[in-house]
Specification:
By secondary structure, the protein is mainly beta. The chain has helices at 9-15, 18-25, and strands at residues 44-48, 54-57, 61-62, 70-71, 80-85, 92-97, 103-108, 118-121, 126-130.
């Protein structure tokens, strides 16, 4: 099994852009419709920009109209942590990566069938691995998601 570790604070500051750091480490939110993955339609998976944990698949991505990447389910539920968030004076469910402890976004119960969930995720918290790069990037096991039956 692959080990997904959170880098040290110094490594994070060197590795991440200021926007990635603000979103993942300071619980920020990027601007809607002004982020790299909200409209990405390529096949592949999305991993935590901090730890590399596999989080979401393009197979579960949909256009929610919100301007952020939205997914109906996590790729690997064991890499997702949900917790209550009352920062904006209303109850929401925050989504974080388990090993990287990155703030990813929020999950809402207004998504499409079959899950009814909308994981509204910041692009700044994600790194996209194209289907064609899965093997070389060490995520070859996920090719099965895109192979025709």
């Amino acid at each position: 099994m692959t080990q997904y570790d959170k880098p040290s604070e110094a490594q994070l500051r060197e590795k991440l852009t200021s926007e990635q750091y603000r979103v993942t480490q300071q619980d920020g939110t990027e601007r809607a419709f002004d982020n790299p993955f909200w409209n990405n339609k390529e096949e592949g998976i999305y991993v935590d920009v901090v730890s590399g944990e596999p989080l979401f698949s393009s197979s579960d991505k949909y256009d929610s109209g919100t301007g952020w990447p939205s997914f109906m389910r996590p790729l690997e539920t064991q890499h997702i942590v949900e917790r209550e968030d009352r920062l904006l004076f209303r109850k929401r469910t925050e989504v974080r990566s388990r090993h990287g402890n990155s703030h990813l976004g929020h999950v809402f119960r207004d998504g499409p069938a079959p899950t009814g969930q909308r994981y509204c995720i910041n692009s700044a918290a994600l790194r996209f691995i194209k289907k064609s790069d899965l093997v070389t990037a060490g995520y070859g096991e996920y090719l099965r998601l895109f192979d025709a039956c």
